[in-house]
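job 3f2a | input accepted
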Amino acid sequence: MTKKKQEQEAQNQENPKVEEPKTENKPETKEEKELRELTDTLQHLQAEFENYKKRVAKESCEFIKCANEDLILRLLPIVDNFELALKSCREDTDFYKGMKLIYSQLIDTLHSQGLKHITCQGKKFDPYYHEVLLAEESKEPDNTITEELQKGYLLNDKVIRHSKVKICKKKKEESKEEKKEEEKKESERPAAD
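job 3f2a | predicted structure (193 res):
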């Protein structure tokens, strides 16, 4: 123990706090009753004020997020056009390098505000994050995303734009019996002149 703690304990042992027990018979004076009521009122007001401060802080954060969401939604088509422009440029030109630098700065700024790309290539379709535009037959498992047609984004873990995707459906393999029946029907048909 530290020296200060030892001294405090020694003082507490020498001068123990003595609380005056309230007696049932001793009526509360008007001043004591008023003091108790004012103390209770003050405590309630302090608690309400603390709750108010917390609520205002939370509402201002939500307001900022909503304001950012609207701005970012307006910027996403610009980001899409930047990506299309970069795909169509030759990579060995100075113009491409300058565009790539500006694009990187824009993306970094958006990421710092909480924007995240929804990755979907090769994953299972999830209706909370993806929107199916096309489906094609494939040997891959059902509802696997084969292509991302438009990027989707999350802002602070909230979907602000779903990924538009192409998914695969399993090929329906005809059973051997169905094939035999079709061949039989084909052979029974009269030949056309």
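job 3f2a | The beta strands are 115-117, 130-138, 144-150, 153-155, 158-161, 163-170.
job 3f2a | closed
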